[in-house]
Structure formats: C-alpha cells, structure tokens
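Hey,

The postdoc asked me to send both predictions to you directly instead of through the lab channel. I've kept everything plain text so nothing gets mangled by the mail client. Protein one:
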Amino acid sequence: MGQISNRVFADTTEDSSTSSGHRGHRRTFEIKSPAASAGSYDFVSARPPGKKTNILESVGHLVKSCLGGGVVAIHESYKACGLWTSMGLTIFIGFLISYCMYMIAKSAQRLYGRLHIATMSYPDVAEAAIAICPFPKIRKYSKCLRYAVDFTICVDLFGSCCVYQVVICRTIKQLVEGTDTVTLEGNPPLRMYILMLLVPCILICMITTLKYLAPFSILADIFLLILAIATIYYGCTFSKVSMFEMPAFKNMPGLFEFLGVCVFSMEGVGATMAIENNMKEPQKIGRVLALGMSVVVGIVFVIGTFGYWGFGEDSKSPVTLNFPFTAFSIALKVFMAVIIYVTFALNFWVPFDLVWYYIKKRYPPTKYWFWERVYRGSFVIVITLIAFIFPNVSSFIGLLGSFCLSNMGFIYPAFIDLCLDWEYPGLGFMKWRLLKCIFICIFGTILGVFGTYTNFRELIRQSF
C-alpha cells in the first residue's frame, strides 16, 4: 500500500460557484489512509455547518426522489406481464434497488475515509472508486465512468420529461373529450395537444432556481398518497373477477416491459448521495433506505395491483384515465396534470444544469443569461418533438428504465462496490462478494439488453 498511497488523481468536478448540487468542489483524489483504517476519519465533523436532515426528513426526501411519473403507468405494465408475477417481482426489485442504493452510499463513506473528503456526489463516487482501484489498466477509465453516469442521468431525466408531457396531454385530452378512451386519433389528435403544450413547457423551464418549484414537490407527495388510496377504492369497486382469477404470467416481452417500468417507478440512486450528504447522521443511511423504500414499494405495489385488478385488460395510462367522471376523480385528473406540469420543470432543471456547465464554457460570462435561455428553450423543443414522435407512456417508461437504470441503478453500483472490496475486506467466503457483483451485473445486463430491445420495438409499433 505504500506505493498506492502516493498516487494522486485529478477530479474534474466543478468549484462551488456552480449552482447545481449534482456537482461538487474542485479537488484531487489522493489516498490518505489505507482501506483498513479508513473508518477512523470523522467525515461528519469535517462537513460544513448548515441545516441537516434527521432520519424522518431524509425518508421524506427519498420517497419524493424515487416516486415519479412511472408510478402512474405501473398498472399497465402489470397488465403486460401478469398480476402475480408482477406482484412478486415488485417486492424483489424493490429490495434489489434498495441494496444497490445502499452500496453506493456505503462505498462513498469508505472513500471519505481513504481520501479524507467529507462529501461526494454519485459521479464523484464513480470516478474516485475507479481511480484508486487495484487494477492499473482500469484506472485510466475513471473519467469515462464519470461521464457515463452524467450521460445516463441526462438521458433518464430528459426522457422523463418526454413521458410527463404525454401524461399531461392524455389527461387533458380525456377531460376535453369527456370519454373513457384516449387514442392517438381524434379532433384534435393527441400529437396536437403535445405541440400545444410546447409554449407552456418552455415558459416554466425558464425558471432557473429551484426555490420557486420545490414547494410543489410536497403537494406531489400528498397527491401520490391520495392517488394510491383512490386506486384501491376504484379498483375494488370496478373489479369484475377475483384477484385469484387474474393471469399470473403472460409472456416474455410483457415481463421486460414490466421490469423497465417497475425499475423506473422506484429507482432513486441518483438522489442517494444528495440525501446522504445532508443527513445529521449519515451512518444511518441504511435505516433511511429501509423505511423510505418500504413506502415506495408499497405505493407502487398498491397502484399496480389494484389498478390492473380493478380495470383489467382495458386499463390505460396514466391510471387516472380509468377513473369515472365524478367530481372527485375529475379533480384528481386536473390536479395530476398541474402537478406533473411542475414536476416537468423540476426534472428538467437537474440534467439541464449539468449540461449547461459544459455548454457555457463556449460563451463569455456576460452572455450567460441570454444563451442559457436559448438552450433551455431549444432542449424543451427537442423533448417535445420526441414526445410528439413517440406518444406512448408505458413503453417509453419501460425503455428509459431498461436502458438508463439498468446501468446507473445496478451495474455501476455493483462494479464500484467490487473495486473497493477487492483489496479490503476482500472477496469473502467462497468469493461471495464477487458472486454478488456478478449476479447484479448479469441482472442489469439482461434488463438493459432485452428490456431495451423489447420496449423500443413496442414503442415503435404503438407509435406508427
């Protein structure tokens, strides 16, 4: 370890002048403690003072981060896969996602002790783990993994914005037409609603600070709880057969559609480090993940199960489209459109802020105000065009979950954890840590390859 401790690795992370919490301070990755004694570094005391979150507050942030637009389409993926298989896999995938999030947080805390750095983002953890790993031929690719994480985050969140546009437009179209069936056709057709939403989306994305948008995330949480309760009520009211008579499993394409949507609906690995960095007791991140992910899995399970059981093979996305035209359900539909409209801006802010860091280097600081708004508008136009071409919610969500989150949620955390385990504490009895990494990577690869292919094929079929 004597030679290793003298290695220094440059970090390309930004300085504190940048506005995004996704990036950190400019620093170098220098090993200052061997792995065996890394636990002696008190990273909590080394963190800057400020308001920190307790366990309950951290659980709330985690739930907000994990539950997104995918949950309103989970029932349709249950329909594609089969009820009982989906119910079992929801619990299994929820556990696996939670464990991978835990691996990222614990990997970061091990890196704090080795590098004497108090806070890190997910891209920081990815780069640092590879930069100090015991495999010399791999170290030179540390920046590549960082950029891969950045790219995946951007594709995932910009793609989510496309989904949100379609969800809003499907809801508006149903309210305008007053019908239970929402199709691509009509007068005007669904794609025309998507184009009409362009200007409102550009306007809300011109908001450059989160403080004006963040309060709406609390309303979104409340809405999701109400939505879950309403789904149970309407599901029990409209169900025509016993739950035991529902199909247990349908086919493999349906399975991969379900896996993609399910992962998308629950994955919050991108927010794990932001939550850990702001905790009063970050060593208790495991409790936060256990409690928070139990709530997330519970809501996804409830909406998926009762949404499919209640509305059967005629169920549509978002789940509110299946609700009857009563005063309460109409209010839910309207409120969902408004909440998801604001969520669109919240989701847009994070990846754009990341991309803007690289773009703005091309312009003098005096031109930032103008060019930032030009690029914001341009990105929204591209997002709208993609939503216009592929206006199918479930398959689009499944594609994002399969392509993006198979990497960011499973493969990257397992590989990072293995790199840190290799020398200390080692691979364990019968090399179980290596086998664990291989299992998670195989699962992520299967989901990434077959899930992406299946969902993309279905997206093309339903869009044209």
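Protein two:
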Amino acid sequence: MNVFLTAALVVLSVVHAQGAALASTQCPDPNGVFAYEHPESCNLFFLCTNGTLTVETCENGLLFDGKGNVHHHCNYNWAVDCGTRKADLTPISTPGCEYQFGIYPESHECSTHYIKCAHGEPLANQCEPGLVYDDRIHGCNWPDLLLETCNPEAVVGFKCPTKIPSHTVSAKFWPYPRFAVPGDCHRLITCVNGFPRLISCGEGKVLDESTLTCEDPELVPHCANNHL
C-alpha cells in the first residue's frame, strides 16, 4: 500500500477515535474550565471551556493525569500513572532537551544546577542553597543522600565535628546537633550521620543563635530588620 495512503488512513482512524470519544462525553458544568482524562490515550485529554468540549494534546514530554499542571493541564511523563491508557513517549529532541518539556541534570557530576526544558528551550535553574540536583527524583535533594557523587562538606561549606561538648546548645539537639551560620539570620546547619545539611528557617522566621531555633523576628532583635 502507498506510504502516504497508509499515513492518511492512520490519521483518519485517530480522528475518528477522538470524534467517537468526544461524542460520548459531555461537559458536566457549563461554566468554567475543566480537564478530564481521555479513556484510551494518556497524551490526550478532554477540555471543557464554558460548556464547549474539545480534545487537547499534551506537549511532547508531558502526559495527562488531572493533577499536575506543568503546561496546559499536563504533567511531566515520569510523574504520570497512565493505568491502562496508552502513552506515546517518542521524544522530539532539540539541543539540550531530550523532550520539549522535561527536567534534566546539568552534568553527571554533583551539581547545584539543573536544566528545565520548556518548548524545547533549555533553561538553567539553581537549587536552594545547600541542595544539589538528584536525577532520581527530578528535583533538588540533600547532598548527603548522594554520597556516590557529592561531598556534602564542599556543598554546604561546613565540616561536622566528631565531638560535641555536652554543655553547648548544639549538644541539646543530639544526635542531630545544630550550628549557626555566621552572619546568616535565615539558616542553620544540622548534622545528620556526620554530614551537614543547610536548613532554612522558612518565611517570616529568623534564627536565634542563643537557642538555635527559628523564631519570630521580634524575638531576635539583631535580625528584626533582616527577615525574608
């Protein structure tokens, strides 16, 4: 059979399948925007816009699960459980991006940066201070959880002491002793199994060096005007 005729028949069959699914589905609510999974394809989904129903396609590298919304109601393919729905995972690659949408390591070495691809454009992103990129979770993680490639002391800039004097504030938190970061009102260091982790106090809180706990700024005068 002619190659072009075969391709045309495939397209027609897909359009027919989408049309049949569309015809058997109705928008449950005439007001607002709602997305629903396609019964057969993980790449497709139904979109109801003020009562108007359409079949939409996730961008390359994305699939539909009704939960994530990386782009146009779709989520990264590695985060989606398609169940019995079929998924086309054929990549459309551009320089620096395996898929048009995805998250990738900057290098195979320990790195505080990673690459996020959107529409095939690779954009460099940086982990929060004290964290490194972990390709296993497609996100940033503690460096002591990646000892095969990372040196937590180099990342955090701190070496955990082997002994902690019992009378110190740090010892009160044993087996996870805490330490202040000189000149930093927003973070502290916690040692876990002998390796340092840089911990943020969080929004609206600052570190009280006398107790090594995060408090409201008004309780830590020298940090009162230096909170996030």
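Summary for protein two, as requested: Confidence is low (pLDDT under 50) at residues 1-21.

Thanks,
C.
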